[in-house]
Amino acid sequence: MGVNTPAKTPIVITIDEHKKMNADLEIVLPKLTRRMERNLKNLNELNPTNIILNKIKLKKFSENEQRQIIFRDINTDEISHTTDMPNLIIPDYHRALHFFSHTIMSDLRMVGGSDILFEKLKVFIEYNLFESRVDLNDLNVITNLSENSVRKLIIESFKKAINMLTVGDSGTSEIRDTICVSKARPFQVASTEFVFTPKKSTFTKMACDNNFELNFAKFLDNCDDIMAFEKINDAMGFFLDYRNKEGGIANYYPDFIVKKSLTEYWILELKGREGVDDMIKKERLEQWCQDATRQDKSKIKYSAMYIQEDNWERYRPRNFRSLIDMYTNQN
Question: Any residues with CB less than 8 A from the CB of 132 and at least 6 apart, and which?
Fold first, then answer.
């Protein structure tokens, strides 16, 4: 906006062809098979009586309310508008169950098991959702199922129960492929606010997510005791699978990779304010490093480092060796 304001346009980050010839800057990572697996054979064991701890009260709606479709604001839960259904249209509980089944399977990326899930939902709603058994053909019951709070309770409770039953750690991980950073495809970033030109990276530019990452990246770029480093981006194809707080399978992208020497790599996670999944990710990163070190035939040792912003601001290490010492002393 404004005549003298420069235009803000995305920039494309690519591999620097001149740096690509420098073997010291090349970072090669093992691509491990997933540890987290979903076994839908266990879905038959899902017990509808254990889905929720406390049953809910069945609301009584008037005949007019039972003939209405109420649209609520997704954020405030306030009524946006109401549509009256013609008398010729008879609500069917099968449609409600199919909606719940489809939503749950879509959220969990489940393939197969819809028939089993449908029957589990039917039993749960009929016998275990409300304080007493209900008739699924009762229009008042179907209207209850259209309430936002009830829909959320059913969907989220089933997702959590299914995750706990079907998701597990295989206990093993093998090297399936390798990731060469110098072969990463070009990618685009929308903002140049946290972008700089690194010396110890094969990319033309390095895009960080915030000021903490930018300052840390510049610190790494000036460390004489490392060979190379990279800010992890989607173009590399490097991520870890983990089990999140809901028990589901999710992907985790650490922040930096540091090549300290030909036989010593560090995977770094920078953290400002901690989230609910952060400790789970930290443990998963340490597990990945153990798996990679054990499986890597080139005898490279992979180590994890979890760096909190307040400690970084307080101590400001001189070099990477000092950072390792600080990390070791804290853990």
Answer: 58
